[in-house]
């Protein structure tokens, strides 16, 4: 239940898996993403509503075969250059994409969490997403005859999130903006939660979301594990790091140097609880 | 209120967009120009403006301009923070949002919006961030306001990818698709304001900013731009508006 | 926005309306139900997952033409005798029923809150509810071909709930067991919330659910408005009152006397903020 | 452990039902006998039992026996309280619950359950509370345990209304309907324990309580009751079990 980060990734993430590292600006599981890079996972189908810098890094490091997403960018800064390089030039490996809207992705997780094969929504109608994304369909209301949009459930092999706290039994507590993380964990076959700290008792807090331990496969204590994003109540977003990512990621060589020093270098791994 | 003439084209665009908001409207806000305009409105003439960010913060009242849709200041100042699925299913989809604010990488004469890709989808010239919340914001808000800088690269005859439907192919196309919101009611640019023709839904220049000519607007539009016979002139921003705006943006 | 209880009922509840007074053991809007009786509303379609004593009272008083529900009883005590008398003997007026499961009702509210005409679920399969309740249908997953159950959205004309607090702008705060109340309010065309108290500021609390004022039509301050059910943080459930209801409700005459003294009598109305 | 012989038939039924729960099972609990049995198990041999009540309390650890599924003590002691739609959609429907505990007003030889109506639906002899959470608990829990007092009024050849599907018409009927849980695995009564035959799914008496004869069980069953050749005898409750149970129920 309580594991080290490298053990958690080794046990739960396998080559070829569909993996969702979710987070909505807040609580992004960055250290877990770096550990996936360090362990050299390949052929992953990465899933996330808002792939940002850590997904750019995973893609640039060659971990991903496919990306399922609804908005990919460096929030407040601009584009993801490793992502662009992968889909425009196939570097370092070709990247297949499957593209949705936020509403569609959120509903796909909800369906996955609910044990249903699909979700019904109003969306996508008239957009070019319909012709470019195969798994958008229509369904007719059996009562009104109205035609609505259907999207298939998302059930990742493993969902990874970062939260503020867990107790020793593996119950997880997060608060602030909690995005789609609950649904992403409930929809997954396995789940890994990195946390700022493991405590004896979870003190109830306004706005908290609790994930009972029985839907959490493993918890790893990784203080700072969401940096450079933020952890409400623990540390602020490092906006400078997001800006600094832009020049690093524009160039393959500077990206390679960054990988070498910040991910594979001893300091980075030690800081993040990886090998 | 004193007016000033020393402002940038982005500033008058933002002030004009802020004017489009009033009262206690519920406004679905994206980061960048929309968020700046909405926060400006809330700090000036529309203190009851109710802002919803797609991260789940309802009624956010940020003291500083958030840098992302998920900044901590949004959660701290919100009436409540809800899960992302509820943002789309309980708030946007049922038509509870008065105004959606959208940007665009490309926009066409019927206000259809592209934020996905420039060039061919399978072999893109420029890969853009993608849809995010925009398709359903465009579909379900009671009306949509687009804020975008005007140029021939952006105002194109035909968008390379319809990420968000404006008025489709014009006329009743939008309603025929079953979309329930009224769609883009205004496109606010650094040159002026465009509104869809009541019948054809073709974007028509209805207002130009001080110092901008109709020819400037035509030169920045990739189709033969329709111009209203009652073309208006945007009022100068007030000194107070500019002061608040600059305090917000730190410029 | 802030109204008296009698004003709220007068303005928001009309003869023939579909009305949901929701609550799940906790926070049942009993005083609002009594005010509906006092104002003599007729031909209501009453909706609730768990109709209990206050619905027995509304039915016995002749307010309802139809009941849409999933479990009707006096929790921990037994049957609802006014409800039984209405459906078995048509007294005081015939009562039509439409019967669902809890899962079905909850999903109907969710669909209503979501602006969808129906919800998809796994449920009802093989039960006799399917042949006795007309609005249960099947829908086929467009991706897997699997057949699932569909239920139509519930959109009450008015939903009435009881909550602990509201602020002066009409934002509502409740905590403890909050049941299906949020969805029932979001699904309704109009809503009335009775509260224990109206405060200047809503202090954030663990487990709170906030209903922003823009989805609340009116708020009435009715301290004790959930009695004999309970309001977490304010008062306990009066289990004796539930037990006392059983003999009162078994007999039409004793029920009539109870109506006269406890609902129409000056003391009851004054206590409950009614006319 | 000392055993005692001075107990009621309800007490041995409840103790036997508690024995069916073990470890850290997730148990969907209804009020009445199921809640009593689950709380007894949690206080004796199954301290990690994880109880979920349909009001939304997950992992409730009530210090006293709740009188309703929505008692305040459940919320105060729960790991978390969730909205009712999530109970059914996020927890029950995906098959996360190990055991569902159900009562019955009528039950038939294939463990189909009626809690809706005695007599004709349109012109009922006795109107019962109805379905509540039972149809989906019966459908989606990994297994279902039924607790019900045995009599010819209750154990009927054919239920007047199928509120919750047990094993349908027997055999593979349940799986053919597409139900994903295994259905009723045990029916625990005040006389003994019945289990479905592995092939026909007909309820078979597999165990009788002390002092009860097979003829007693047959006399209380409205169909020709099948009896296992390996009929067992329920062990007497221990003094500790009875003490804990009586402390819980206040009897």
From TrEMBL, chains A, C:
User: Does the UniProt entry include the keyword tRNA-binding?
Assistant: no
* InterPro entries for the chain: CoA_trans_fam_I, NagB/RpiA_transferase-like
* Pfam families, alphabetized: CoA_trans
Keyword list (alphabetical) reads: Transferase
The record's GO molecular-function terms, alphabetically, read: CoA-transferase activity
Q: Which family does it belong to?
A: Belongs to the 3-oxoacid CoA-transferase subunit B family.
Could you identify this protein by its name?
Glutaconate CoA-transferase subunit A
Taxonomy, top ranks, is: Bacteria, Bacillati, Actinomycetota, Actinomycetes, Streptosporangiales
TrEMBL record, chains B, D:
Q: Which residues cross the membrane?
A: 12-33
Keyword Transmembrane among UniProt keywords? yes
Annotated signal sequence is: none
Q: Which domain of life is it from?
A: Bacteria
Pfam entry (one): CoA_trans
**InterPro entries of this UniProt entry?**
CoA_trans_fam_I, NagB/RpiA_transferase-like
**Keyword list, A-Z:** Membrane, Transferase, Transmembrane, Transmembrane helix
Gene3D superfamilies the record matches: Glutaconate Coenzyme A-transferase (3.40.1080.10)
Record keyword Transferase present = yes
Instruction: Extract the GO molecular function terms from the UniProt entry.
Output: CoA-transferase activity
Q: What family classification does the UniProt entry report for this protein?
A: Belongs to the 3-oxoacid CoA-transferase subunit B family.
Listed name of the protein: Glutaconate CoA-transferase subunit B
Species per Swiss-Prot/TrEMBL record: Marinactinospora thermotolerans DSM 45154
- Which taxonomic lineage does the organism of this UniProt entry have? Bacteria, Bacillati, Actinomycetota, Actinomycetes, Streptosporangiales
């Amino acid at each position: 239940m309580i594991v080290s980060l490298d053990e958690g990734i080794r046990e739960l993430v396998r080559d070829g898996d569909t993996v969702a590292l979710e987070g909505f600006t807040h609580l992004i599981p960055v250290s877990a993403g770096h550990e996936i890079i360090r362990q050299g996972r390949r052929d992953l189908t990465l899933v996330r509503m808002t792939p940002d810098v850590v997904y750019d890094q995973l893609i640039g490091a060659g971990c991903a075969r496919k990306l399922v997403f609804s908005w990919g960018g460096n929030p407040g800064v601009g584009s993801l250059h490793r992502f662009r390089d992968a889909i425009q030039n196939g570097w370092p490996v070709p990247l297949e994409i499957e593209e949705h809207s936020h509403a569609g992705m959120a509903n796909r997780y909800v369906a996955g969490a609910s044990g249903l094969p699909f979700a019904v929504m109003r969306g996508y109608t008239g957009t070019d997403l319909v012709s470019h994304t195969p798994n958008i369909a229509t369904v007719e209301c059996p009562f009104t005859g109205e035609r609505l949009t259907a999207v298939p459930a998302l059930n990742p092999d493993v969902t990874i999130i970062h939260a503020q706290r867990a107790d020793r039994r593996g119950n997880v507590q997060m608060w602030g903006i909690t995005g789609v993380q609950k649904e992403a964990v409930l929809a997954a076959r396995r789940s890994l939660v990195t946390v700022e700290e493991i405590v004896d008792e979870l003190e109830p807090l306004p706005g908290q979301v609790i994930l009972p331990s029985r839907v959490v496969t493993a918890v790893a204590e990784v203080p700072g594990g969401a940096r450079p994003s933020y952890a409400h109540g623990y540390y602020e977003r490092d906006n400078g790091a997001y800006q600094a990512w832009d020049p690093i990621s524009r160039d393959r060589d500077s990206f390679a140097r960054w990988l070498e020093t910040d991910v594979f270098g001893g300091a980075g791994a030690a800081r993040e609880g990886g090998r | 209120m004193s007016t000033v003439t020393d402002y940038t084209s982005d500033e008058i665009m933002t002030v004009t967009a802020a004017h489009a908001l009033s009262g206690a409207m519920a406004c679905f806000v994206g980061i960048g120009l929309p968020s700046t305009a909405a926060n400006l409105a809330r700090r000036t003439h529309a203190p009851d403006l109710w802002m919803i960010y797609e991260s789940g913060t309802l009624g956010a009242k940020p003291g500083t301009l958030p840098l992302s849709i998920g900044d901590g200041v949004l959660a701290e100042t919100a009436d409540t923070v809800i899960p992302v699925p509820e943002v789309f299913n309980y708030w946007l989809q049922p038509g509870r949002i008065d105004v959606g604010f959208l940007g665009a990488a490309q926009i066409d004469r019927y206000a259809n919006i592209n934020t996905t890709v420039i060039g061919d989808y399978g072999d893109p010239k420029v890969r853009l961030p993608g849809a995010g919340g925009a398709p359903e914001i465009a579909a379900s808000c009671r009306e949509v306001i687009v804020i975008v800088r005007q140029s021939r690269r952006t105002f194109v005859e035909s968008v390379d990818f319809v990420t968000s439907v404006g008025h489709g192919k014009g006329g009743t196309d939008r309603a025929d698709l079953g979309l329930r919101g009224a769609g883009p009611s205004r496109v606010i640019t650094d040159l002026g304001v465009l509104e869809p023709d009541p019948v054809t839904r073709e974007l028509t220049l209805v207002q130009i900013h001080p110092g901008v000519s109709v020819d400037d607007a035509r030169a920045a539009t990739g189709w033969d731009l329709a111009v209203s016979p009652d073309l208006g002139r945007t009022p100068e921003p007030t000194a107070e508006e500019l002061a608040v705006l600059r305090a917000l943006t730190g410029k």
